[in-house]
Write a structure and sequence with these properties.
Radius of gyration: 19 Å
Order of helices and strands: EEEEEHHHHHEEHEEEHEEEEHH
Structural class: alpha+beta
Number of helices: 9
Strand content: 15-25%
Strand order of the largest sheet: 4-5-10-6-7
Largest sheet: 5 strands, antiparallel
Shape: globular
């Protein structure tokens, strides 16, 4: 897509005043996919030099906003943590070609805030925390589950930048279970649920995405039975929070959410013999 309203491309390393019509440019796979008549200037993050993904001395995983899907997938294949398989499962949930994989960024997927964004699913399920930088230099940290508040709606102020997402070391030690459904063989996710089981206290967490307008987290301090999971989903997801578009009606998304939630409960219960 030729963005013919853009009059300037600026290097993000050069500080300047944020103004109406500015937009951060990461991989550009969304920006250049459709008309953006409101954009006048692109602020390019491509030369910021952020390390794409790394393990911190504390064992946390820090993912730069500019990390591409291909870079994250490649890193995760060598990650020796119980939660490692979830990375590839979520990367594969993209409706994207290999060319998009090498350009699309983790930060861009979060900042689009679309229900089917699999990087939202991944980072919310592993207790990810966003690091946000404002134009005046202030730093704000916010859980991914609170960062995306609706379909395409984020808690992001004018000019505020998503710098990175940090996944805590303890979350990487969890066993995971993944379920995803689409109306088509290679279609956009209509429901994507992730379950995790903490090896220390046995807590089970269920993250509902794609079927809902925002990520919804359900936690169970004790191993739940089928009825407990069903009640948690029934009361934890309001009827109006099920997404409605050409990729799935709300009733179908709700049905798949209940079905996947029970499948995940059984899978994670069997791993511990409970």
């Amino acid at each position: 897509m030729d963005l013919n309203t853009v009059v300037e491309l600026r290097d993000a390393r050069r500080r300047g005043t944020w103004r109406p019509g500015d937009a951060w440019l990461g991989g550009g796979t969304y920006l250049f996919s459709e008309p953006q008549p409101h954009i006048r200037r692109l602020i390019d993050l491509g030369r910021m030099g952020w390390e794409p993904v790394r393990l911190t001395p504390a064992g946390d995983l820090e993912i730069a906003a500019t990390c591409t899907i291909a870079q994250l997938s490649r890193f995760a294949r060598a990650l020796d943590r119980p939660a490692a398989p979830l990375f590839e499962q979520c990367c594969r949930a993209f409706l994207a070609s290999w060319k998009i994989w090498h350009m699309a960024t983790v930060g861009g997927n979060l900042c689009n805030g679309l229900p089917a964004g699999p990087m939202i699913s991944l980072t919310a399920a592993l207790d990810g925390v966003c690091t946000l930088l404002s134009q005046d230099g202030a730093v704000r940290r916010l859980p991914v589950a609170d960062f995306v508040t609706g379909a395409g709606v984020k808690d992001l102020g004018p000019g505020e930048l998503l710098r990175s997402i940090v996944l805590p070391a303890r979350a990487l030690e969890r066993r995971t279970a993944f379920r995803q459904a689409s109306l088509y063989g290679l279609g956009r996710s209509g429901a994507l649920l992730v379950g995790t089981r903490d090896p220390l206290d046995g807590e089970l967490a269920l993250t509902v995405t794609a079927s809902t307008v925002r990520p919804i987290r359900l936690r169970f301090a004790l191993p739940p039975n089928a009825e407990a999971v069903r009640e948690a989903v029934a009361y934890g997801v309001r009827p109006e929070e099920y997404y409605d578009d050409v990729h799935g009606l709300p009733d179908w998304r709700r049905h798949m959410t209940f079905r996947f939630a029970e499948e995940i409960r059984r899978e994670l219960a069997e791993e511990t013999g409970r």
